[in-house]
Design goal:
It is built from 8 helices and 16 strands. The protein is of the alpha/beta class and 297 residues long. Helix 1 runs parallel beside helix 8 and helix 5 crosses helix 6. The radius of gyration is 21 Å and the shape is elongated.
Length: 297
């Protein structure tokens, strides 16, 4: 993966004189910094940093190479002295409600990726009435971008209160300033559609239960929508080989997986925070561990 973890690992290894090959599934390097963060936050930053990083030499990047599709872990272990998995989180949680299949219901990360790679934003389709489901930075980004691209109404709905949202208080305030309506304590129960396309989404009001988890109040409401963007968390794509823990790749203190010669880091292993700086630190620390292992081989 050529996201923050993989790039940081490759750069640190190249600095120590190792020859490194990065395999990246997408057509550009950068990971979420290129595909998953709103353009107004990092305009052109990802590619500028990658150009600088690759300038050290000793690093080759092959795009369109995806583990499990046209790459096998066993082959990589055979052909290389060490393998680092910086896979990120490529899959998205489903709403798990009736009507999720209707046209107009899509993943917020896909919407942002399409937006980031679009050369002419005037040709990018955006709904008039957009509902974003989630409470993290991706949800905020999708809501703000929809509003800026001309959506007449944008509503962000989160199943808990403002204080537990992944997005910061500043991000929430920014969204409201951009004209986004934020509804707390509500969860989706059904997507409604007409002729195969989304027409609205029904929610149940929630409240804190005895265990702190949201529970339904018995009241419901429906929002009209021609676009529903899901931003309820990303998960690890299925990966064969390394053991998992809590849905992420299990690693030890040296970032080594349960498979010989294979290390991992970044979002695919999880950590204290799901931030770029954490992924970069994982990559650097894994590179140091790989160097120690190879020096003692």
């Amino acid at each position: 993966g050529a996201g923050p973890a993989g790039l940081a690992c490759a750069h640190a290894l190249a600095r120590q004189g190792h020859e490194v090959v990065i395999f990246e599934a997408l057509q550009k390097s950068g990971g979420l910094n290129e595909y998953g963060i709103a353009a107004y936050k990092v305009p052109g930053f990802a590619q500028q940093e990658i150009d600088w990083l690759l300038g050290i030499g000793g690093i080759t990047v092959e795009h369109g190479r995806e583990l499990g599709r046209n790459l096998k872990l066993d082959d990589l272990r055979r052909d290389f002295d060490a393998v680092f998995l910086g896979l990120g989180l490529g899959a998205v949680n489903a709403l798990g409600v009736p009507g999720e299949h209707f046209e107009g219901v899509r993943n917020a990360v896909d919407f942002i990726a399409e937006l980031r790679q679009c050369a002419d934003l005037s040709r990018l389709p955006v709904g008039r009435r957009v509902v974003v489901i989630g409470g993290g930075n991706t949800a905020i980004d999708a809501a703000i971008q929809s509003r800026r691209l001309g959506a007449e109404e944008v509503t962000l709905v989160y199943r808990r209160g403002a204080e537990t949202m992944g997005a910061t208080v500043v991000e929430q305030a920014f969204a409201r300033d951009e004209g986004v309506r934020i509804v707390h304590w509500a969860r989706p129960v059904e997507v409604h559609g007409v002729d195969g396309a989304v027409s609205g989404i029904e929610f149940a009001y929630t409240q804190p239960g005895p265990d702190g988890r949201p529970q339904d109040t018995g009241e419901r409401f429906t929002l009209a929508a021609d676009s529903v963007l899901k931003a309820i968390g990303q998960v690890l794509d299925p990966v064969t080989g390394p053991a998992l823990k809590g849905g992420r790749i299990a690693v030890d203190a040296e970032y080594h997986t349960t498979v010989e010669k294979v290390w991992a880091g970044g979002d695919c292993v999880g950590g204290k925070v799901d931030l770029t700086v954490q992924s970069v630190e994982d990559g650097k620390r894994a590179a140091a561990a790989i160097c120690r292992a190879l020096n003692h081989a």
